[in-house]
Design brief:
alpha/beta; Quinone Oxidoreductase, Chain A, domain 1; Rossmann fold; nine-stranded mixed sheet; seven-stranded mixed sheet; 25 helices; 32 strands; about 25% strand
Length: about 725
């Protein structure tokens, strides 16, 4: 299918063929008829991508700070690799579309094939022939509304939320600063709400449109009689509310708003403007209320609402994103709003570059509302696109999932190991196309069966969200593929049991990405303690840092939490050091009333091993990022081994210290070990039994944490059941 794409690294903007997006639970697959280019927002997005690296950094100082912190923790080389992966990415443009439902997996059963719908959402309602959109960001279009007008729905909902924040009532006098597309729609909505509307803008054409179609009166910002016109409009009292819909780097809108607002009036900020608020004389002496409007309503930036489909109770949250979208369409159907005068251009998707030349000023044409139109295309429903036909190796690998981790640590190392890269599958076609082009895959796809069903593919690498690991591992085994799956193998006992049953029937290698045991410094310490002649004690202190509760990793049904998703690394490392099996575990965590803190992310765990060894894992999220992340100590046989954040290590014995060199956390070495095992016909470098024991132990840690009792670990009960 065709999609408008921008390369964030180079700034290049173009229309490309990409695989159609995949459909999953809670999503609606829609064939677009029209999409709206939001000139103000998209102009800014495109310009950021077209800026050089220094200017990109200036515009995102928050990300620069993250990079600096990452260098301190992971080193320069690893950080550069991450940054390159982030920069060298393709960005989807657009966030407001209208089209027809192809198929739906929404959990409410609201949407059926053929339904006319409007869609919202960055990275979802993109400028593409087909889009997959979360159910709470999709609304049905009334019969009285055409697709062209419906394509404005997202912007309409943004305007509506700004007005809701203003809490305007019939008869109030309202000023709108910024008469671009968002401002024009805001003016019309205010008039529909019974308000007297005054508009201000720098553009003569926008002022003219407002005077003719949107506002009771509109005036140029540089008009010397502006203040007189405002006084006459408000009878000298000032505006009840000023709504700022402008997008500018100037502080003028916020200063002007304070000047024009009446005493005890309101200023609502909808557009992207600086907010250096001058205290005196206006904001302080008038006691002006300042309110921010968050995009298109309650639910925005809430993962549970937008991505997981959890709606807010109607009685308690009357106006959500979706309900604002529905209301805007209802007003269109009832003819309270007229968008036809705002549409200045309708451009075919194949000519989208011309449309962006207009909004960027490369082509000097009056514009305000620009629509992209989509027509029939026989290839738009293809899930797979072939890029090349490079020779296949003895190990011919395909990837399911290709996020930043896979791009930084897995794909480059698989390529370097001598394996051939055949196919890459992601849920978003644009990502699959980007990764395939960047790393030299033969084809890209949005459909898992395109790689599982290809006989030439003998090895699958799985790097998807945690909840899908078990299912994809099983499907890969059933398809006769060798499997490398990122941790964890499973997020609950049901999944683990299913994988075990599948592995009983299919003997090909399966390995989980427990990389730390492959780190050179880990191997050196294991060799040192191999002949200790007594049990060892392992202390592992992990200064993991905080991850918000709304992050996907913390979601029970997706990431399963850090206990399952991250601590497994260290249980595996303990098995590696001891060469023994865990038999008992006890865990306890902090108690806190602070809702921002996840207690289980601050936990102390004791693991007893069959050979008598003991492992102590202290995993913490409430520390300071300035301290190194991982400190690992091994005691036994009158020796001590230390790993400092996998950047260096030490052996202490005989009253002397020996420094160990480190070459990272073992990502390259684990891939090399797996690929070499496949080439030589050997099994996984980590035994399936050990992988299952690590997984089972994390589940038992969970049980201990919530029962307050030590838990026995008996894998044989499961294997023989």
């Amino acid at each position: 299918m065709k999609q408008v794409i921008q390369n964030f690294k180079t700034g290049e903007l173009y229309v490309d063929e990409v695989p159609l997006p995949s459909l999953s639970e809670g999503m609606v697959l829609v064939e677009n008829h029209f999409s709206l280019i939001s000139a103000g927002t998209e102009r800014g997005t495109v310009k950021v991508a077209q800026a050089n690296l220094i200017n990109k950094a200036r515009q995102r100082p928050d990300l620069v700070a993250q990079v600096i912190q990452n260098i301190k923790k992971e080193g320069l080389s690893a950080t550069i690799s991450k940054v390159k992966a982030k920069l060298d990415s393709l960005k989807a443009l657009g966030y407001s579309t209208a089209g027809t439902v192809i198929s739906s997996m929404d959990t409410n059963g609201m949407f059926k094939p053929g339904d006319r719908v409007a869609c919202a959402g960055v990275d979802y309602a993109s400028h593409a022939e087909i889009v997959a959109v979360p159910q709470n960001l999709v609304v049905k279009i009334p019969a009285e509304v055409d697709f062209e007008d419906a394509a404005y729905t997202t912007l309409g909902a943004i305007a509506m939320q700004g007005i809701r924040q203003a809490e305007t009532v019939i008869g109030e006098k309202v000023c709108v600063i910024g008469l671009g597309l968002l401002g024009q729609i805001t003016c019309q909505l205010l008039q529909a709400n019974g308000c007297a509307v005054f508009g201000i803008d720098l553009s003569e054409s926008f002022v003219s449109i407002a005077n003719e179609h949107s506002a009771d009166k509109a005036v140029l910002r540089n008009d010397p009689n502006l203040k007189i016109a405002c006084d006459n409009f408000t009878h000298g009292h000032g505006f009840d509310t000023v709504i700022i819909t402008a997008a500018t780097q100037s502080n003028d809108p916020i200063e002007l708003a304070g000047d024009l607002t009446r005493k005890k009036g309101k200023v609502v900020v909808v557009g992207v403007v600086p907010m250096d608020i001058p205290r005196d004389p206006n904001y302080y002496r008038k006691e002006i209320d300042i309110k921010m409007s968050c995009s298109y309503g309650p639910g925005r930036y809430d993962v549970n609402y937008e991505e997981n489909g959890q709606d807010y109770p109607y009685a308690y949250v009357r106006w959500t994103e979706q309900r604002n979208m529905e209301t805007f369409l209802d007003l269109l159907a009832r003819k309270y709003i007229n968008l036809k005068p705002l549409t200045t251009h309708v451009v075919g998707i194949e000519d989208a570059e011309k449309a962006y030349d207009i909004i960027l000023g490369k082509v000097k044409e009056h514009h305000i509302g620009i629509l992209l139109k989509y027509s029939g295309n026989e290839t738009k429903s293809r899930s797979s696109i072939t890029l090349s036909n490079k020779p296949l190796g003895a190990v011919n690998a395909s990837f399911i999932g290709a996020g930043s981790f896979a791009q930084s640590y897995l794909i480059p190392n698989v390529k370097a190991s001598g394996a051939s890269l055949d196919g890459v599958v992601t849920s978003r076609g644009i990502t699959a196309k980007n990764v395939a082009s960047k790393f030299g895959f033969n084809f890209c796809s949005s459909e898992v069966n395109d790689v599982l069903g290809k006989a030439e593919v003998n090895t699958i690498f799985i790097a998807t969200p945690h909840n899908s690991h078990a299912d994809l591992s099983i499907r890969s085994l059933q398809a006769g593929k060798n499997v490398f799956v990122e941790k964890p193998l499973a997020i609950n006992m049901e999944q683990l049991n299913a994988v075990i049953e599948a592995k009983k029937k299919h003997t090909q290698p399966l390995m989980v990405g427990f990389n730390r045991r492959f780190a050179p410094v880990s191997i050196s310490i294991k060799k040192e303690f191999a002949n200790a002649g007594e049990p060892i004690v392992m202390n592992m202190r992990i200064n993991a840092g905080s991850i918000p509760k709304d992050n996907w990793l913390q979601q029970k049904d997706i990431g399963a939490g850090r206990l399952i998703g991250e601590m497994c690394h260290f249980i595996d490392l303990m098995q590696f050091f001891t060469n023994s099996e865990p038999v008992k575990v006890y865990a306890d965590c902090i108690n806190t009333s602070n809702d921002k803190i996840t207690p289980a992310d601050n936990i102390s765990i004791v693991v007893k091993f069959r050979d008598g060894s003991v492992g102590n894992l202290t995993y913490l999220a409430n520390g300071d990022k300035g301290m190194p992340k991982e400190l690992i100590e091994v005691f036994g046989g009158s020796k001590i081994g230390v790993i400092n954040d996998f950047r260096d290590g030490m052996i202490y014995k005989g009253g002397k210290s020996i420094k160990l060199k480190s070459a990272g956390k073992g990502h390259k070495e684990e891939v090399d070990a797996f690929v070499n095992a496949l080439k030589t016909g050997n099994d996984s470098p980590i035994s399936f039994r050990s992988i299952c024991l690590t997984t089972l132990t994390t589940f038992k840690i969970h049980d201990s944490l919530y029962t307050g009792m030590a838990q026995d670990i008996n894998l044989d009960e499961i294997l023989t059941s």
